[in-house]
Amino acid sequence: MKTSPLCSRDDGREIFFTARLEQTKYRVTLSREMLDDICGDDATEKDRKAWVTTHKPEITASLNGLTRLAPYDRASIEETN
């Protein structure tokens, strides 16, 4: 599976990336609220990206049809063009 570099919105508090599985492209978004709960309200963009990078295999596992376990089930996954 190919994934894009991590990007951010909301002053670095929300992190997202794209992933391609076969012919389908997905956008995976980890919301500010989710990352505040996990990393802490005062976590920097760098801290948030480091957490996402470390946990990317678990986050993207749902794209392969595997069970989404907490807290990864809170990531938003949508098909894109």
Write up this protein.
With 81 residues, this protein is α+β, with helices and mostly antiparallel strands. Helix content is 30%, strand content 31%. The protein is built from 2 helices and 5 strands; from the N terminus they run ββββααβ. The chain has helices at 32-39, 45-60; strands spanning 2-3, 7-9, 14-21, 24-30, 76-80. Strands 1, 2, 3, 4 and 5 form a 5-stranded antiparallel beta sheet that branches. A hairpin with a 2-residue loop joins strand 3 (14-21) and strand 4 (24-30). The model has no long low-confidence stretch (mean pLDDT 92).
Key descriptive features of the protein:
single chain, 81 residues, alpha+beta, 2 helices, 5 strands, 30% helix, globular
Kindly summarize this structure in a few lines.
It contains two helices and five strands, in the order ββββααβ. With 81 residues, it is α+β, with helices and mostly antiparallel strands.
